């Protein structure tokens, strides 16, 4: 199913996810460096908590803008050009951030970088979903989540190296500059998605015969020697299936909220919504203080704790990659989210009843992180990229990405006031109750897509 050229195909789109993760890790260290009177290397280091919040969330706002931009242009420019554009924005954003002479320029750099994140998280899973063989599609898209976590661990690691150096925050952002260049070169070398080319052909957006020929060449390049003889036959099969499910008619925005598309939007939007509102940003935010109460000496150093949790996330995402195409999406979601329910109620009860037994909190924290990476972490992005009908896939995924980043921003902002109002124990139990609701959603609404082609998913699951 895979040869060496196929592995490269997934490496380049996944680099965009690596850059997203790196930014999260590096920024947590950069905010420490930039506020230091002795190590920041700037005269404007006396930043308020609001300023630091703007630095941290700047890329999140950029990602929201990127999702809106993707809604308008994704199906016009295609997945490949979307990723090349994202690589260019990453390069500009990282360079501007690293060289920023004043605070407003730093924020501009962060927002530009974030627009690249929004485009990547839209185009990368779509490109991989549309080019991967159905038998290993889950594994290949989950590699994107693995790349994000790997980038996060890399960002924490590089950040902790530079955090004691004068102007270290500049070096943290500058270190990553070669990666988007490599990503852009790789995406220029890769062909366009065959399914996107066939969609253009069906909808009369070019010469049908030449687009079909281009799709055959693309499939041969992407799958290598495995499909040299059968590529034309496979392309004709995809064309026939697309015509039979009505992909030859151009979609309107209104169709997103009707029939099959509405069902796909409910599945994808529901998964990314529950992914964020079951406390994922908040539990990680609380990790250092949980480990500190447990008496871990490393707990005094937030970056070391983050690396430890990052490695656990990486290992569990690796487990998900190995089993996702064997076990399927639903068993991992139901099993992983059940583990999250147990861990959240354990965390809540620790803060209410057992705060003299820190081992409870540590066990709950590790269980939560592990179960999240087996379930919501990779599978929300995977199902988002495979559930939408082709003609509305670009717009549908951009709405789901918008929901993801929008709810992430909301949960991150609401966490502190909610904690003050309700207390940590009640808040974590609240997240646990939402997690129980998400189990009902998964059980009754989310279909199994293991082993089906994208066209079969559209025909059988929607």
Automatic annotation (TrEMBL):
CDD domains: MFS_GLUT10_12_Class3_like. It is found in: Membrane. This is Major facilitator superfamily (MFS) profile domain-containing protein. Gene3D superfamilies: MFS general substrate transporter like domains. The chain crosses the membrane at residues 53-74, 86-105, 111-129, 141-165, 171-192, 305-324, 331-353, 359-384, 396-415, 421-446. PROSITE patterns: MFS, SUGAR_TRANSPORT_1, SUGAR_TRANSPORT_2. Keywords: Membrane, Transmembrane, Transmembrane helix, Transport. It is a multi-pass membrane protein. Belongs to the major facilitator superfamily. Sugar transporter (TC 2.A.1.1) family. Residues 9-450 form the Major facilitator superfamily (MFS) profile domain. Coiled coil: none annotated.
């Amino acid at each position: 199913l895979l040869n060496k050229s196929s592995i490269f195909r997934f490496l380049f789109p996944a680099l965009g996810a690596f850059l997203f993760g790196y930014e999260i890790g590096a920024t947590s260290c950069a905010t420490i460096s930039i506020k230091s009177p002795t190590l920041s290397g700037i005269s404007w280091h006396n930043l308020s908590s609001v300023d630091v919040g703007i630095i941290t969330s700047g890329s999140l706002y950029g990602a929201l803008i990127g999702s809106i931009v993707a809604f308008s242009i994704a199906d016009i420019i295609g997945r490949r050009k979307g990723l090349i554009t994202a690589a260019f924005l990453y390069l500009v954003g990282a360079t501007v951030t690293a060289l920023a002479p004043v605070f407003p320029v730093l924020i501009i750099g962060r927002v530009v970088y974030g627009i690249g994140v929004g485009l990547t998280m839209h185009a990368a899973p779509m490109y991989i979903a549309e080019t991967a063989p159905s038998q290993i599609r889950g594994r290949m898209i989950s590699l994107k989540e693995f790349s994000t976590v790997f980038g996060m661990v890399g960002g924490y690691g590089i950040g902790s190296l530079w955090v004691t150096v004068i102007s270290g925050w500049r070096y943290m952002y500058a270190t990553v500059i070669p990666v988007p260049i490599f990503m852009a070169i790789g995406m220029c070398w890769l062909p366009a998605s065959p399914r996107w080319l066939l969609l253009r052909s069906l909808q009369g957006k070019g010469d049908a015969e030449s687009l079909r020929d281009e799709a055959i060449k693309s499939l041969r390049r992407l799958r290598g020697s495995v499909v040299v003889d059968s590529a034309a036959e496979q392309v004709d099969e995809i064309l026939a299936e697309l015509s039979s499910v009505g992909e030859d008619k151009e979609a309107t925005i209104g169709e997103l909220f009707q029939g099959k598309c509405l069902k796909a939007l409910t599945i994808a939007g529901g998964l990314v919504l529950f992914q964020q509102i079951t406390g994922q940003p908040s539990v990680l935010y609380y990790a250092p203080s949980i480990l500190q109460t447990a008496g871990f000496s490393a707990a005094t150093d937030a970056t070391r704790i983050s690396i430890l949790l990052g490695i656990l996330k990486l290992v569990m995402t690796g487990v998900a990659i190995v089993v996702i195409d064997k076990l399927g999406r639903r068993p991992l979601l139901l099993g992983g989210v059940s583990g999250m329910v147990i861990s959240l109620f354990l965390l809540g009860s620790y803060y209410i009843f057992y705060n003299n037994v820190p081992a409870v909190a540590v066990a709950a924290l590790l269980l939560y992180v592990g179960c999240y990476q087996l379930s919501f972490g990779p599978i929300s992005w995977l199902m988002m990229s495979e559930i939408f009908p082709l003609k509305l896939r670009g717009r549908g995924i951009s709405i789901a990405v918008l929901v993801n980043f929008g709810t992430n921003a909301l949960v991150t902002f609401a966490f502190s006031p909610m904690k003050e109002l309700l207390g940590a124990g009640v808040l974590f139990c609240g997240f646990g109750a939402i997690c129980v609701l998400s189990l009902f959603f998964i059980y009754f609404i989310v279909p199994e897509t293991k082993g089906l082609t994208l066209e079969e998913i559209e025909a059988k699951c929607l």
